[in-house]
Amino acid sequence: MSFPATPKDKIDSPNAAHGRLANIVELANIVELAAPVILQMDTDARVRFASGYYLGTLGLSPETIVGNSFADFISDDTDTLAILQQVLAGEFATAELPLGDYTFELRLTPLVSPDGQIVGATAVFTDITHLANTAAELQRSEASFRVLTESSPDAVFVHRFGRIVYANDATRRLLRRSSTEELLGTPVLELFNKEDRTQIAERITNASPTNESQLNRFKLTRKDGDIGTFEVTTMAVQYDGDSAVVHIARDVTQTLRMQNSLAKTERLASLGTLAGGVGHEINNPLAYMTANLSFIAEELADKLPPEDSEENLDIHNALLDVRDGTDRVRDIVRQLNEFNRVDASSETLIDPRVAVEAAIRMSWNHIRRRARVEMQFSSVGSVRGNHARLGQVLLALLLNASQAFGEFSLQQCLLSLRCFDRGDEVIIEVSDNGPGIPSTILGNIFDPFYSSNPEGQGTGLGLAVAHSIVAEMGGNIEVESEVGTGTCFRISIPRAERRNTQPPHSKTILVITDEVRFLESVQISLRGQTIRIAGRMSAVTSDLKSSNYDAIICDLSSADVDIENFALEARKCTEVLIFVAQSGTTITMTEASMASVLLRKPVGADTLEMQLQELWV
Predict the structure, then answer these.
(1) CA of 18: how far to CAs of 4, 11, 22, 298, 546, in Å?
(2) Could you tell me which of 411, 429, 606 has the C-alpha nearest to residue 526?
(3) Calpha distance 434→617 (Å, rounded)
(4) Global pTM?
(5) Which residues in the chain come in under a pLDDT of 50?
(6) Which residues of 578-593 are buried (b: 16+ CB within 10 A; e: fewer)?
(7) Residues 97-149: pLDDT tens digits?
(8) Count of H helices and E strands in the chain?
(9) Whole-angstrom Cα distance, residue 370 to residue 403?
């Protein structure tokens, strides 16, 4: 290749030429110091000029480069050679080029002759090793950041100038978005509840790498409109090489609901204990009131006028009214104590209709103002369970049904209860003609802490606990509902059939009680058996070692000795030991474990007979 010659008429004088040469030398020195490496090459990519500070550092010199191919200098980098061809065609180009331990930015420009012809190219190499290392470190940091955030269960989202530029998958999931891309570009304040936006905007403004991050609770709005409570940390960071703000948000909605529910549960437990204590205190005077009424009736029997007289009838009716009143007080106390946790652990054969009736009585004042009630009870078999716990299930269903009616008029609202046998199961149905349950939430109603009520109303535990109780009884609870028509909850519990094997009539049973009515109930249920009666434990304790009984039924209200010691002695003469306790009294776990079974008053004759049959068989 030949460069264009200079015309003779343009040749300078010796002095001018000397001056220009001095300028060229000075310019060359400046170039040598200013740029790490400068190369000029012809159209064949042969190096015609080489200069630069880094040539020596790279183990090169102008003498070893000039005259050689540019490809030798860059180790046959095909991409760079292709760029060079574009530059020789008249384009400008840049590329990143590693040489030895250094990384250079290569800028290629066409070399144009005075007549406008491209006669070669100029390559300027600038050391960007530090910048490249910084960029690589930044990429590694951002890669680590993404790995950590994508595996985090907490929401992590980054925003710059108020708009989200990054969000991890947990953000999408917790805010119920279809994809993370949906969040990109979204104004960050739109994620927060309106009442919190002023405070979060202030946090964003004050965020800086030197400020200590703070943890605060804010409400974030999910896509479906639901509002969740989050603990949010805000920090200023470098993201994609520029300043940004990152928020780390942990969903504590369920945790707060659980804490509130546990607090309410503790209060309910305290109320249950209080109810048990009040019931016990009422039962004490009620017991001697009942006893005195019986005494008065017996004493007056011989002193009253003839039975057919009007005076006798009035006195008799008055005594009946008083006795009925005391019975009603006793029933109210018993129903109150049935919902006490103390009684929840005992499991016996029960008539489910009793639990239904108790639940209706407990909720009647609430129901009667909201709905008409229809009941259809067929004769059903016994089930194994606990009146209190089954009553708790039915009470929850009744209250939920009555609350569902809302502002409907009394004549429009109908609440129906049915109890019947179906094969080997006892079925209890609680149905209403209310607004129904939408299919979108029907599958969640038995989930713990799920509630369709406004926040602060209800714990979301009622149906979950009901489902658990029915499952413990070996049964199932299901729901059918149609919007605008109504809802039906159906409980199915396995029926406890009587055993075919009847105990022989030679059984000898010791009954310890000083309560006449309880004794009468026992005698009715054990008709045909040999019964020995004792009023107090102490009356038989000394005889237990030499006696042999098929069963001992002990009314704990007649206990005048240590119950545990008595049970140890009783176990020596029989395997069947039944303790009967007044509803509301406290029985320790140790005392209860000493008996074959613990029953609570009132004890039906049918229940006692079936319980003994099972224990004997």
Answers:
(1) 21, 12, 6, 151, 143
(2) 606
(3) 48
(4) 0.39
(5) 1-12, 17-18, 21, 24-25, 27, 30-34, 341-345, 456, 499-504
(6) bbbbbbbbebeeebee
(7) 777 777 888 888 898 888 888 888 888 888 787 776 766 676 666 666 666 77
(8) 19, 22
(9) 8
